[in-house]
Amino acid sequence: MPRRRETTARQERLGVELRKLREAAGLKALEAAALVGSSSAQMSQIESGIAGVSEERVRSLAAHYSCADEELVGALVAMATDRTRGWWEKYQGLLPTPFLDLAELEHHCTYRLDVEFLHVPGLFQTEDYARAVSSYRFPKLPSKELELRVGHRMERKVIIEGPNPTPYELVIHEAALRIRAVDRAAMRTQLGRILELSEADHITVRVIPFDLDGFGGASNAMMYAGGAVPKLDTAVRDAPHGAGFIDSEAQLGAFRTLFRMLESESLEPTRSRDFIHQLAKEL
Prior knowledge:
Layout: H1 9-24, H2 29-35, H3 40-47, H4 55-64, H5 70-81, H6 97-108, E1 112-116, H7 127-135, H8 143-156, H9 158-161, E2 168-173, H10 174-178, H11 184-198, E3 203-208, E4 222-225, E5 234-239, E6 242-246, H12 249-265, H13 269-282
Parallel strand pairs: 1-2, 2-3
Antiparallel strand pairs: 1-4, 4-5, 5-6
Helix pairs in contact: 2-3, 4-5, 7-8, 11-13
């Protein structure tokens, strides 16, 4: 397979998972390469995402690694053979690569879990809100790049507003609903947008109010994307230049548990909608 000029997070994840299977089998890269008639250099390129890998080779490696998880192998084959060119490709070279990686991750995810404490999550943001949040930085972004970032964020909404919406659960703290990143009128519109989306069958919104006693979890914001199989789930760490992906199985399990903890402490969906509606009336 030819080498790629630039790898995507999805391609790198495929390599990481193949390496995990090899290491679980107790094989070195040179030993694995010999089993499929390859070289240790090519195996290194495959495991780093630099070189592509065919369906036949993925299945051959999985067999040599004694991987009996057919669902996982099938998901890895899908990653290896995927040729999707999504809407995010038009931002290639215009926005940092992590922005494109996030859009691709969302395109393929089977569900999304978000926890927010200070901002309305990106998938729920209005254009005014997104522009205000993206522009509040120093040094300021050039106006062209700012508008590109806002446009990219608006297009990401396709996963919850498109024809085949992704199941989405949000736990949001009252602070994020009260901080006025925009003026009163625009914030009222933003809260109205959250209410509108919360009525969709595939979306669940829960609020953690300020007056919840004994709540010490305000540092645990997260984005979590479900994979084709649980081992391919991804947690996302937000950052000024994009997003960092977490694939450690132990950490993923901790994130899932943490989300359910926060969910259990929040208001149930109907009360949450009433709560947001009251906040909007107060503006």
